[in-house]
Amino acid sequence: SYAVSSACRGKHIGEALVKDCLAKAKEIGFRVLQFNAVVASNIHARHLYERLGFTQLGTIPGGFRMPDGSFEDICPYFHEL
C-alpha cells in the first residue's frame, strides 16, 4: 500500500513509487503486481493505476473500514509484468 502526505500531493511522488515498484518487481522476476485495497473513492490513485496500465479486477463491497468507522468499497488492481 502507498500513502502520500496531503502536504506532498501533486508532486508525482505516488507515480514515482508505483513506477519503482513495477520496475523492481519485474527485475526480481515477478510476473504480476497486484494492489488489493484501493479505496473506491480514491479517484486520483485509481486514475494513476489505470494510466500506468493496471486493470481493475472488480469491486469488493464494504471491504475497507474508514477512520470514521464507515465502510467503503475497494477495487483490486493488477498489472502484468
The Cα radius of gyration reads 13 Å
Beta-strand content: 15-25%
In percent, how helical is the residue content? 25-40%
Strand arrangement, major sheet = 1-5-2
The low-confidence parts are none
What does this structure look like?
It is a single chain. The protein is built from 2 helices and 5 strands; from the N terminus they run αβαββββ. It is of the alpha+beta class and 81 residues long. The strands form 2 sheets. A 3-stranded antiparallel β-sheet has the order 1-5-2, covered by helices on one side. It has a two-stranded antiparallel ribbon with strand order 3-4. A hairpin with a 5-residue loop joins strand 3 (60-65) and strand 4.
Features:
81 residues, alpha+beta, two-stranded antiparallel sheet, 2 helices, 25% strand, globular
Helices and strands in order:
Layout: H1 13-27, E1 32-35, H2 43-51, E2 55-56, E3 60-65, E4 71-74, E5 77-80
Antiparallel strand pairs: 1-5, 2-5, 3-4
Short description:
This protein is of the alpha+beta class and 81 residues long. It contains 2 helices and 5 strands.
